[in-house]
Structures are given as C-alpha cells and as structure tokens.
Design a protein that fits this description.
- With about 350 residues, the chain is mainly α.
- It is built from 12 helices and 4 strands; from the N terminus they run αββααββααααααααα.
- The protein has helices at about 5-20, 50-60, 60-75, 100-110, 135-150, 170-180, 180-190, 210-230, 245-250, 260-275, 280-300, 310-335; strands spanning about 35, 45-50, 80-85, 90-95.
- Strands 1-2-4-3 form a 4-stranded antiparallel sheet.
- The chain is globular.
C-alpha cells in the first residue's frame, strides 16, 4: 500500500462504516482524507485526524469514531498495524513493500506517476499583459498540480493569484537577470504570502544552490543511464541490496540512501495530493530538494567499480536511480521548470 492508497482506503472505511450502521447515518464522509507523515515522537509511519472531522458532523467523540475505523482498517492488506493516540488520531504502520514493484510502477507511468486516475490534460494558459510574472508562475503551477489530481483549478483569467506577494523588481528585470527557470524556482520555493529572494546565490552552479541541486540530480540520473549503456547493461527493477564485501570498502555507506529513496518515491503521490489540496507548490519544491539530495548520495553505488562486472544488483540500482530521475523531471514539469539531461 502506498501513502496515496492509504488516504483512499481510510475514506472508504468511513463510507462503509456509515453504510453498515457502525457510524450514524448523518456522519459526513470526507471527499479527501488528510494523511501525513507521523511527526517526530509519534507512532507508526503515517497519521490522520479524520476521526475528529467525522465526529464533528454527528456530535460523537473522536475516540469512538477512531475505534470504529481502526477495527475496519486493521484487516486491510498493506497495513501492518493501526493504532490510536491522543483523543482520536489514527496512526498507521505500512507493511513492508518490495522496492522492485514500486520502481517498476514509476518507470512504467513515467512523468504521470503520482497523478490521479482522472487527471486532466493540460490546457494552454491565456494571460492579460498586465499579469505579473510571479502571479502567472504561481497560478500556472497550482493549476498544473490540481489537474494532476483530477481537479480543474481556478480559471486562467489573467488576474493576480490571490494572496501572492508581488515581486519587488520589475518582472522583465527578474527574468532577464536570472532566466525564466531560475526566476520561477525563486517564486515557487516560498509560500505565496512570502517575498521571494533573488540574488547571486540563485545562479550558483554547485550543490549549495537548491535550484541547481535538483536539476543536477536529474542530469546525473540520465548520465548514469548513459554510463550503463557504455558498459553494456540497462536498468531492471529488482530488490536493491547492499553492496557486496568487495565493493563495500570502496563505497562505504554510499548505498545507505536506497531505503530513503524508495520511501520518497512512495510518498510522491501524497505530496502532489497535499500540494493540490493546499494550493502550495512550495511543498513540491521541498520534496524535490529532499529527493535530489538522496539521489546524489545514492549515485555512487549504481555503476560497477574497478573490475566489477555488471550484475543484477547494478541493474536494480540503476532502475531505482532512473525512477528517482523520472520523479524529479515530472515534479519540475509541474512547476513549469525544465529538467535538462546534461548540466
């Protein structure tokens, strides 16, 4: 079960509990269940306050609603444990999922991995000449993310997106000085009501710049594929194991990020859903930075070293790296930013 599946599973449990009379007929069934990573000190992998949301509609105690839902959800495949904390928070521990299936899903869906099944096709945007660059960039990113989750989003009427702080400099100056992609990154990496920061660090060509980091990580994923082709092997999803004794000394802990990469790939659909629900492209930006960090650490154990021959382990690691690169490219596309193959 993926985090996104968990959200729909909980919503279905609420609906069936109402249909079977375990919850009052007047209980509201939410269209969307918020499921988020458990905060430090919490229990399990994910948590949701849905019991409080449902309890409000019938005047019941959240703990009672949580008890009803926990009993139903305990039998769901893909869930290892369901626990209740506090006054009614539901906490979930997911059953271990093989990495090969997740990687295969990402690679097969490509840029549309993480999209809802009823995602809408993108349509061109039409803007009035007076619309500012930041207003356009934020609005277009929000609409693309909403469409990826099956929502139509607000109309593109050329007006300023509500609550978006203006850019202090003239739009033409910002784009001319930093380029459209870098300027777009700057305005999307902060919440809409905060003022974006422009300056020389935005154009730094090393990993101290998050804008460079994310695009560079995508380019490295592409470079790994080219390197593997020269060595005569290709990506093949499989369980990503630790390096063997012969390579462990040279690689050190380089393959340690593999579980973190898999966790982030699994979370991506949930990130898109949350970014759409909150109209917050900065959430997607933060995710891409985290994914890029892990991929750049992981890249060192993908290709054979020295006299090593390409093996199933190398093919599986390459597939994981390519899957991470696929998600980086898809996320950047939703933000309206190019993902270069070489950088």
């Amino acid at each position: 079960m993926t985090p996104a599946d968990l959200s729909s599973t909980v919503a279905r449990a609420v609906r069936r509990a109402v249909e079977d009379g375990e919850l009052p007929a007047g209980a509201g069934v939410p269209e969307r269940v918020v499921v988020e990573r458990t905060r430090p000190g919490g229990v399990g992998d994910y948590a949701t306050p849905v019991a409080f949301q449902v309890a409000k509609t019938v005047g019941s105690a959240p703990r009672h609603v949580a008890d009803v839902l926990a009993r139903r959800l305990a039998a769901e495949p893909g869930l290892d444990r369901v626990e209740i904390t506090g006054a009614g928070f539901l906490n979930f521990t997911l059953a271990p999922r093989g990495g090969a299936g997740l990687v295969a899903e990402v690679l097969s869906r490509g840029a549309r991995y993480g999209y809802a099944d009823d995602a809408l096709e993108a349509e061109p945007f039409c803007w009035a000449p007076t619309a500012g660059f930041r207003q356009r960039a934020v609005h277009e990113a929000v609409v693309r993310i909403l469409r990826s989750q099956g929502g139509e989003g607000p109309e593109e009427d050329g007006g300023a997106a509500p609550g978006v702080a203006p850019v202090a400099r003239r739009d033409g100056d910002v784009v001319a000085a930093y380029g459209r992609d870098a300027a777009t990154w700057a305005v999307l990496c902060v919440p809409a009501r905060e003022t974006p920061q422009f300056g020389p660090p935005l154009l730094v060509q090393d990993e101290s710049s998050e804008f460079f980091l994310v695009r560079y990580a995508h380019a490295r994923a592409k470079a790994l594929g080219r390197g593997a082709a020269r060595l005569g092997f290709h990506a093949e999803p499989g369980e990503v194991d630790a390096p063997g004794p012969a390579s462990a000394t040279a690689l050190g802990p380089a393959c340690a990020p593999a579980p973190a990469l898999l966790r982030l790939l699994a979370e991506y659909p949930l990130v898109l859903e949350a970014a759409a629900h909150r109209r917050a492209p900065e959430r997607l930006v933060r995710f891409l930075v985290a994914l890029a960090d892990e991929l750049l650490d992981f890249q060192h154990c993908v290709l054979p070293k020295g006299d090593e021959k390409p093996s199933a382990a190398h093919r599986a690691r390459l597939a994981l790296a390519e899957a991470a690169g696929t998600v980086l490219a898809g996320g950047l596309a939703l933000l309206g930013i190019d993902a270069p193959d070489c950088l």
